[in-house]
């Protein structure tokens, strides 16, 4: 019993989808199930009269991804940059263009020259336009936060959403102005956006930083799904439905588009290589890594196949709103910029979700060499502090790798602030361990818990350091002797169980001390490329002392002690049994 069309009633019922099933019930009794396209008021009235309650449930049918693109026949096909082609600065405007670069750290002059609603090529892999998505996709709120964004670029971002998204799926577009200083981002922006009822602008009263600015937007969102975007993007045709389809499939899937490149120099829209995963290297630097060709071949991975990612880039993704709040959103203690992509990625994976790149969804982004806005505090310190918060909450024992690779972080004595709530949250959500994450989600990351281990052999004498009744001796090496086994940690301790090798008195006698990561007198420099003297690479250097002091064997007594370092003295050269990293 198909019923044709009605929209206004959908609204009174608080439903956004044009096609639903009407389930007619009387008390608990099911009377009838109808497929209704809710555009026909009369039909709806009839239904309402004939039953006590009208309940609407999912229409589980599917349709081909909609090719919504209001820019397909552009008003001005000859305009610069049209169709995503490169634009050029006229000769007599070179100076001006150069001058304006710093307004956004990209070619602002050209951005202003090209249409705010330009057309771009459909860069989706073959097959994407034939894919099916469900009729009852969840709705989404677009959240775009910005600080001092370039006018034309911000507008182009908004127009690309409006022009290339099925409007029934967009509940609203929330622009969060993170306390911009530019005048045009106040009244003029508000005025301009009046023509688009779906666009709301939230002007923050103080600088929140992108993390808390996104959260301010999320608090207002009414859609089922949150879709975050940067404020200098161009959404390509068919970008939205494939993202929402994944979230509909499983509300714990976090869906990211392929991020394409809008050239900072000529504003051209460029596609990127397929098969890229979001990854990180120590100390938590985000990067892209191509899936190796042999893996693609062996597993017959297609260009349109979804790619699971250890981490996301950060800027562009769709997440179920309820799930985002269940996860405790972002750590609101993260400041300004950076690290939040690591946090949300670890949180999602370790607490039951998944992060995916959806190749049929493509969004261009202007990558810039430097942030075009100011940081309230030192930029580097801000990012390091954010990352350290993430490491402290999510990395478990692996946080030593983070600090070991960013060793200066420890020396700086970073104040990461209060973490109790974040740690509580992780417990409450019963999230898995970082070890689980490494083994299951990112097995190709090298993450040895220690830098070196095993015997500590003296090169000149081929004898080994040995623990004897809680003191240290020097004996014939024997790989099966447990008393000769040590770990050299990322934090530069030489550990034997819970005890650490140390110089125990002023004479330089060697002994064991209870380990303590904060005790600098327990730290030895060894085989570290970043060490202060490369010729001492094979030495074990006590780094807390003014004068480099090295572990050595006293030739006559064959005992251990520390002494002034001497690069050519083989009695000061040591080798561990195994090395796991540089
Ligand atoms: C990437 C992400 C970005 C974010 C960042 C790490 C992409 C494409 N971009 O760097 O979204 O995850 O890594 O934190 O994945 N903004 C504010 N307030 C601020 C600072 C920035 O609102 O205090 C806005 C800014 O205007 C922009 C967005 O936040 O729209 C992201 O900043 P970005 O473009 O400088 O970051 P990006 O792309 O270098
Ligand atoms: Mn950006």
Overview features:
alpha+beta, 6-stranded antiparallel beta sheet, 5-stranded mixed beta sheet, binds uridine-diphosphate-N-acetylgalactosamine, binds manganese (II) ion
What do these coordinates show?
The chain has 582 residues and is an alpha+beta fold. Helices cover 24% and strands 28% of the residues. The chain has 16 helices and 30 strands. The strands form 8 sheets. It has a 6-stranded antiparallel beta sheet. A 5-stranded mixed beta sheet has the order 9-8-7-10-17, sandwiched between helices. The radius of gyration is 30 Å and the shape is elongated. It binds uridine-diphosphate-N-acetylgalactosamine and manganese (II) ion (MN). Residues 145-147, 149, 178, 209-210, 213, 230-231, 259, 313-316, 336-338, 340-341, 365, 371, 373 line the site of uridine-diphosphate-N-acetylgalactosamine.
Cα shape? elongated
Q: For the report, how would you describe the main beta sheet?
A: 6 strands, antiparallel
Q: Whole-Å distance between the termini?
A: 71 Å
DSSP summary: helix tally = 16
Small molecules (ligands, ions, cofactors) in the structure? uridine-diphosphate-N-acetylgalactosamine, manganese (II) ion
The count of DSSP E runs of length 2 or more, i.e. the number of strands, is 30
Which stretches of 5+ consecutive residues score pLDDT under 50?
1-18
Mean pLDDT: 90
Helix content estimate:
10-25%
Strand order in the sheet with the most strands: 25-24-23-22-19-30
Which structural class best describes the helix and strand composition?
Answer: alpha+beta
Taking all Cα atoms into account, the compactness measure Rg is 30 Å
Tell me the β content: 25-35%
Pathway: Protein modification; protein glycosylation
Membrane topology: Single-pass type II membrane protein
GO molecular function: carbohydrate binding; metal ion binding; polypeptide N-acetylgalactosaminyltransferase activity
Subcellular location: Golgi apparatus membrane
């Amino acid at each position: 019993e198909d019923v044709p069309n009605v929209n206004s009633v959908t609204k009174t019922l608080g439903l956004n989808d044009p096609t639903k099933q009407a389930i007619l019930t009387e008390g608990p009794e099911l009377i009838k199930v109808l497929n209704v396209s809710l555009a026909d008021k009369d039909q709806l009235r009839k239904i309402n009269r004939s039953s006590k309650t009208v309940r609407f449930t999912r229409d589980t049918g599917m349709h081909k991804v909609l090719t919504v693109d209001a820019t397909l026949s552009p008003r001005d096909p000859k305009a610069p940059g049209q169709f995503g082609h490169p634009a050029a600065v006229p000769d007599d405007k070179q100076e001006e263009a150069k001058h304006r670069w710093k307004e956004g750290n990209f070619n602002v002059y050209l951005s202003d020259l090209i249409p705010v609603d330009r057309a771009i090529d459909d860069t989706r892999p073959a097959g994407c336009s034939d894919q099916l998505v469900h009729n009852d996709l969840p709705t989404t709120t677009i959240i775009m936060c910005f600080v001092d964004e370039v006018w034309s670029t911000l507008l182009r971002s908004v127009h690309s959403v409006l022009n290339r998204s099925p409007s029934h799926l967009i509940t609203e577009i929330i622009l969060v102005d993170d306390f911009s200083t530019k005048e045009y981002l106040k009244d003029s922006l508000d005025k301009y956006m009046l023509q688009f009822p779906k666009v709301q602008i939230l002007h923050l009263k103080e600088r929140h930083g992108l993390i808390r600015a996104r959260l301010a937007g999320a608090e207002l969102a009414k859609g089922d799904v949150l879709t975050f975007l940067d404020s200098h993007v161009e959404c390509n045709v068919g970008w939205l439905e494939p993202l929402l389809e994944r979230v509909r499939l499983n509300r714990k899937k976090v869906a990211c588009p392929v991020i394409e490149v809008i050239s900072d120099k000529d504003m051209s829209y460029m596609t990127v290589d397929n098969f890229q995963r979001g990854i990180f290297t120590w100390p938590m630097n985000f990067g892209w890594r191509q899936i190796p060709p042999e893996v693609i071949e062996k597993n017959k991975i297609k260009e349109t196949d979804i790619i699971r990612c250890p981490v996301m880039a950060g800027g562009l993704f769709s997440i179920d709103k309820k799930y985002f709040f269940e996860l405790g959103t972002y750590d609101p203690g993260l400041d300004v910029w950076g690290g939040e992509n690591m946090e949300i990625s670890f949180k999602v994976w370790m607490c039951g979700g998944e992060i995916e790149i959806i190749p049929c969804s493509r969004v261009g982004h202007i990558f810039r060499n430097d942030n075009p806005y100011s940081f309230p505090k030192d930029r580097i310190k801000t990012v390091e502090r954010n990352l350290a918060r993430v490491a402290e909450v999510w990395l478990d024992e692996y946080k030593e790798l983070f600090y070991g690779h960013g060793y200066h972080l420890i020396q700086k004595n970073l104040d990461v602030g209060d973490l109790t709530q974040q740690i509580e949250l992780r417990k409450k959500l019963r999230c898995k361990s970082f070890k689980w994450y490494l083994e299951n989600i990112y097995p190709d990351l090298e993450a040895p818990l220690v830098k070196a281990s095993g015997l500590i052999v003296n090169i000149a004498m081929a004898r080994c350091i040995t623990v004897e009744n809680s003191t240290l001796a020097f004996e014939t090496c024997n790989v099966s002797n447990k008393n000769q086994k040590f770990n050299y940690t990322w934090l530069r301790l030489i550990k034997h169980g819970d005890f650490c090798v140390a110089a125990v008195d002023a004479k330089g006698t060697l002994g064991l001390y209870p380990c303590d990561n904060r005790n600098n007198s327990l730290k030895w420099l060894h085989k570290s490329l970043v060490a202060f003297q490369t010729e001492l690479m094979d030495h074990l250097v006590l780094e807390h002392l003014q004068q480099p002091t090295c572990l050595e064997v006293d030739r006559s007594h064959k005992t251990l002690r520390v002494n002034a370092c001497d690069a050519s003295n083989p009695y000061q050269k040591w080798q561990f049994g195994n090395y796991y990293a540089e």
